[in-house]
Design goal:
heterodimer; A: Cytochrome Bc1 Complex, Chain D, domain 2; 2 domains; globular; B: mainly alpha; Cytochrome Bc1 Complex, Chain D, domain 2
């Protein structure tokens, strides 16, 4: 009897909560999930949608600072993608921040790693570039900035795991050719990507896509790399 | 002698002192007359917002008012100039008179005739007092040294005689004249719509040489973007003669209303300018717009005959609608007012020119973020998901469902809607 009453009370409060989230205009939930439906038709992370995910990157769980920087780049025409530019063109910084916050906190299971056959020498090359870099060509280890777990660092440096290899290859190639961000001369990632060969880009992208997503984001960066990558940290501030 | 010298010296001193006093008085008078007060700067800033100078005089992601925005038109590419008070690259050397000539007569500081991409055809209606307030505000913002690329206007549109002739034919210089038969509020609205707000820079059909075709606010394909600016003189387009004043005010200041949401360039105007208008000015604009007569002629629109083929085409469209659109826009196209616009009896859906509808479905988009609606709901960019054929079918369907009547749309139309520009 007591238990039934308790369940009823819980149910009662649950329904109250749900109705509070419905907007005053009817049955449209007053939530960010409803507001970002225009994003999630492409950036969807469910099962029945895998075929589209090879080009559209996962954004759930990415770092908030990184996401808001990218949203502003798209809106302001620095990072060029027409679909993104048109969607965001009349949005305030505050709304972009809210959207970035929503996706950064979105906790959805990651898809299984891609199964790509890599030869032993390719695996060795990928691991070397990722863990050690190539000091002779001034390429730091990926892990030096993106974190030991490669799950991202300092809110502005993105994680590299859980992304499709096609997407990673495209982004690294764009960094290399100078077409990802306009006026990117001072950007550290552009300088690094220009030192990589296309073969290296493909191998690194494939290796990253085959890794299981685990580990925490990092919150430290060496003073050298802070200096080298300062544009990333200044981006958010410079546009205020 | 010495006395002479002394008196001469005294005289000089006196002259000097008097001279200084005169200068001081002159200077104070001049400063007093010329220096704008905080109050007048605030007024100037407000008028600059209302005229949305920033909208064109700022490159995408660029420094406000430093220019560099490219307007691509059929006549070539116009590049907006830097209007910050930088002496070398902006308007730092301009006088108030220079600014007035630009706004009122469409002439630059060096006497050059300006291209009417700068809407002096509308700004000519602004009062000198308002122009002065705007000028003083622009002179008070930080100077930015930024050289912008030159216009790229090919022959014949770059020729001076052509521009001269164009002005003779299509430019009527003159400050807005108050209509004594109308209320003060109506006149304020007319002044804002026709002048500073330069609404008909877009809401007007233009002819081959870029002049307004007939009545102002008559609707037309936009010059520098692939959108159709609907007529404010037609209840079948964007005329608001049948709307409640409150609904007009809501749409213009928040970007959404129960009838329609602002999209495309109109959303940009709401975000950059209209949301900042004072309640009195938005109301005045609404009063004026509501008073405009319906001049729409029943055009010879031939609606599709419902042949078996057409029915099959629409049935395909219905399937697409049920799968992708119905969740938000409803089973009978009723939408959710203020959030997801209704499609039944929505004029943007049935416009004879289906361009805007095609663009909205291809590219999706959000109404503008405004103080009144800071977190709008959005429309997905369906070209990422649907084939052109499906888009053509679903558009044809919604143009002919729930009492709507409109021409069928083909995949060629859809592809043309892709076009360039925003």
């Amino acid at each position: 009897m007591c238990m039934k009453l308790l369940i009823l009370i819980v149910l009662f409060f649950f329904t109250l909560n749900v109705s509070a989230e419905l907007s005053s205009h009817g049955m449209v939930p007053d939530t960010m999930a409803e507001r970002v439906k225009a994003c999630t038709i492409c950036h969807y992370h469910g099962d029945n949608n895998q075929e589209r995910s090879s080009y559209y990157p996962r954004i759930a769980g990415k770092l908030e600072g990184y996401l808001v920087n990218q949203l502003r780049h798209f809106r302001d025409g620095r990072r060029y993608h027409q679909a993104m530019a048109l969607l965001l063109e009349n949005m305030s910084d505050d709304y972009l921040q809210a959207i970035a916050h929503y996706f950064s906190k979105l906790d959805i299971p990651y898809p299984p790693p891609e199964s790509i056959d890599l030869k032993p020498n390719e695996i060795e090359l990928a691991k070397k570039l990722i863990r050690l870099g190539d000091p002779q060509r001034d390429i730091p280890a990926c892990s030096a900035c993106h974190g030991d777990s490669l799950m991202g660092n300092m809110s502005y440096i993105p994680g590299l795991l859980g992304l499709p290899s096609a997407y990673l290859t495209a982004q690294l190639s764009d960094w290399r050719s100078g077409s990802l961000i306009r006026g990117q001369v001072t950007n550290c990632m552009s300088a690094i990507a220009k030192q990589l060969s296309y073969d290296e880009i493909i191998v690194v992208s494939r290796w990253l896509a085959t890794q299981t997503v685990e580990g925490e984001t990092q919150k430290t960066l060496s003073p050298d790399l802070v200096k080298r990558c300062q544009s990333i940290f200044l981006e958010g501030v410079a546009q205020e | 002698m010495s006395h002479y010298y002394v008196s001469s010296a005294l005289c000089s001193v006196r002259k000097y002192v008097i001279g200084c006093l005169v200068l001081l008085v002159l200077f104070t008078v001049r400063v007093h007359a010329a220096s704008p007060t905080d109050q007048s700067l605030a007024e100037g800033e407000y008028l600059t917002r209302v005229g949305n100078c920033l909208g064109c005089h700022t490159a995408k992601g660029g420094i406000p008012f430093a220019g560099g925005r490219q307007l691509t038109t059929a006549f070539g590419t116009f590049v907006t100039p830097n209007i910050t008070p930088d002496k070398e690259t902006g308007i730092g050397r301009w006088t108030e008179e220079d600014f007035w000539l630009a706004m009122h007569e469409g002439k630059s500081r060096d006497g050059r005739m300006l291209y009417p991409a700068f809407p002096y055809t509308e700004f000519t209606k602004i009062t000198r007092a308002d122009a002065k307030l705007i000028f003083e505000y622009l002179q008070s913002i930080p100077a930015v040294s930024q050289v912008n690329p030159a216009h790229a206007i090919p022959f014949p549109y770059n020729s001076k005689p052509l521009l001269f002739g164009w002005r003779k034919l299509f430019f009527k210089q003159g400050i807005y004249e108050t209509d004594p038969t109308q209320s003060e509020e109506w006149n304020r609205g007319a002044y804002l719509v026709q002048g500073l707000g330069h609404c008909d820079a877009c809401h007007t059909a233009r002819n081959e040489v870029g002049a307004k075709k007939d009545a102002a606010l008559g609707g037309g394909q936009m010059m520098s973007s692939n959108w159709y600016a609907p007529s404010l003189y037609s209840r079948k387009e964007a005329g608001v003669m049948d709307w409640n004043l409150e609904d007009i005010i809501e749409l213009l200041s928040s970007g959404v209303s129960k009838h329609a949401n602002a999209s495309g360039p109109m959303a940009t105007v709401v975000q950059q300018s209209l949301q900042y208008w004072s309640p009195q000015d938005v109301r005045a604009m609404a009063v004026y717009l509501k008073s405009l007569p319906d001049k729409a002629v029943e055009a010879n629109i031939r609606y599709p005959e419902m042949s078996e083929n057409a029915k099959r085409y629409l049935a395909q469209g219905k399937k697409v609608y049920e799968k992708h659109c119905q969740d938000c826009h409803g089973e009978i196209g009723q939408g959710v007012p203020g959030i997801y616009p209704p499609l039944a009896n929505n004029r943007s859906v049935t416009l004879p020119v289906p361009l805007n509808l095609i663009r909205v479905i291809l590219n999706g988009g959000y109404p503008p973020t405004t103080y009144l609606n800071p977190q709008p709901y959005g429309m997905p960019p369906f070209q990422q998901l649907l084939r052109d054929e499906e888009i053509a079918q679903v558009i044809s369907y919604i143009r002919n469902a729930w009492g709507n009547r409109g021409g069928l749309v083909t995949i060629v139309d859809v592809d043309q809607g892709r076009g360039s520009g925003h």
